[in-house]
């Protein structure tokens, strides 16, 4: 694989409803194409708003080669910039998180305001224009407690997502959440294997004993279809909608994101080993404890669970062709007190175990795919519609973003 014509041929070689040919999972050139055509073009979920609760908080995130600096300024707005000084390019902030009223470059101390303006640069001469050397902005938006950035010159319109997020997520009152815990793990697998694994529950009964206490592994609920083939799903949706809680399956026309609210098993209300709530403070205007989980995915890098007592934001970032970071953020109501309203171990134990089980699964998946014995295998039409939907989205997006000549050659 050396150029986009090869990539186009590789896309052609993909069999429908089958896992991808091996190079998609381990070839450095395909990985680079993923970074250039997927990760540098679309909106990427980078942080929960509650990670930057106060003005003068900075956060950095690495998306491929791009280091991005997020800053919440005094006006309350979060902005994103390339984390590269306009003098000689030094990285401005090396730490994951910082608190500072200004951005001071560690090299020669050029100093920027949190809105990106260059405030001070020593001895640059009369002709120097500070105005022309502000930080380079990166598209950034904050939607219902989630911060997204887009590295492309022109970013896709987020208004449709904003409108639906306001319906499905606002009842959980994301502005009044706090981070209870955050975990970051590295999985030795291609990022697509992490996403594929998330998009099915075919593996759940065999691998997730703790999750399966309350999470239903019914493919009609968690698969690609609109969950209306499940009576349990239909009943849950209409009960929630009757109570004023938007819950019906909705997917964007480009299939980049979707929302659906699904029930837990039996009397379960949360991800706990006894099925009971993990936090005593019910979120926002959620009408009852057993509201289930509103599942929200946003490709290429996030899936989320909105419950009556907590919110889980998952962020996936590629590190290398066979290495991916998965960050999980557990959020509870701002006024919930640890040790009183929630116990941290109880709140986090199910998904800490589940994440580790998923890590093992996808690492084994990667190892098996790396073998010369690997050939793409069939997805289950019953269980793996979600995987197929993700892979369809991926192939379609990659092809759409291929440089024009290669696209022509493929037509
Ligand atoms: O976290 C999720 O959304 C998915 C749904 C199916 C498997 N996994 C638990
Ligand atoms: Fe930042 Fe010189 S590189 S001040
Ligand atoms: Fe899993």
Automatic annotation (TrEMBL):
Keywords, A to Z, come to: 2Fe-2S, Dioxygenase, Iron, Iron-sulfur, Metal-binding, Oxidoreductase
Does the record's keyword annotation contain Metal-binding? yes
**Cross-referenced SUPFAM superfamilies, in alphabetical order?**
Bet v1-like, ISP domain
State its cofactor. Answer: Fe cation
**This protein's name:** Aromatic ring-hydroxylating dioxygenase subunit alpha
Q: Which InterPro entries match?
A: Rieske_2Fe-2S, Rieske_2Fe-2S_sf, Ring_hydroxy_dOase_asu_C_dom, Rng_hydr_dOase-A
Domain named Rieske is located at 43-149
Q: Which CDD domains match?
A: RHO_alpha_C_GbcA-like, Rieske_RO_Alpha_N
| Species of provenance | Rhodobacter flavimaris
């Amino acid at each position: 694989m050396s150029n986009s014509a090869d990539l186009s041929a590789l896309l052609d070689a993909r069999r429908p409803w089958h896992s991808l040919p091996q190079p998609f999972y381990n070839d450095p050139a395909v990985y680079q194409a993923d970074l250039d055509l997927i990760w540098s073009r679309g909106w990427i979920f980078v942080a929960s708003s509650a990670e930057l609760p106060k003005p003068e908080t900075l956060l950095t995130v690495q998306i491929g080669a791009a280091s991005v600096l997020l800053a919440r300024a005094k006006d309350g707005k979060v902005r994103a910039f390339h984390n590269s000084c306009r003098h000689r390019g030094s990285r401005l902030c090396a730490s994951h998180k910082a608190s500072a009223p200004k951005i001071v470059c560690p090299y020669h101390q050029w100093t920027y305001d949190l809105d990106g303006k260059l405030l001070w640069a020593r001895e640059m001469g009369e002709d120097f224009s500070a105005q022309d050397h502000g930080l380079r902005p990166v598209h950034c938006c904050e939607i219902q407690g989630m911060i997204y950035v887009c590295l492309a010159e022109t970013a896709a319109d987020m208004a449709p997502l904003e409108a639906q997020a306001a319906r499905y997520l606002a009842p959980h009152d994301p502005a009044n959440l706090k981070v209870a815990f955050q975990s970051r793990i590295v999985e030795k697998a291609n990022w697509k294997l992490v996403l594929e694994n998330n998009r099915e529950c075919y593996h759940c009964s065999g691998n997730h004993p703790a999750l399966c206490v309350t999470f239903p592994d019914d493919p009609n609920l968690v698969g690609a279809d609109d969950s209306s083939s499940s009576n349990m799903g239909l009943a849950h949706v209409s009960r929630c909608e009757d109570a004023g809680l938007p819950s019906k399956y909705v997917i964007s026309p480009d299939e980049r994101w979707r929302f659906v609210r699904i029930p837990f098993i039996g009397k379960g209300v949360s991800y706990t080993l006894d099925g009971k709530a993990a936090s005593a403070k019910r979120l926002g205007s959620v009408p009852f404890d057993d509201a289930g989980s509103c599942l929200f995915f946003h490709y290429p890098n996030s899936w989320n669970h909105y419950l009556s007592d907590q919110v889980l934001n998952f962020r996936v970032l590629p590190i290398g062709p066979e290495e991916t970071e998965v960050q999980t953020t557990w959020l509870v109501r701002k006024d919930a007190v640890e040790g009183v309203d929630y116990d941290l171990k109880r709140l986090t134990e199910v998904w800490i175990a589940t994440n580790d089980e998923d890590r093992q699964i996808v690492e084994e998946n990667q190892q098996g795919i790396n073998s010369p014995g690997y050939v793409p295998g069939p997805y289950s039409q019953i269980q793996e519609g979600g995987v197929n939907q993700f892979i369809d989205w991926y192939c379609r997006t990659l092809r759409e973003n291929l440089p024009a000549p290669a696209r022509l050659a493929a037509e």
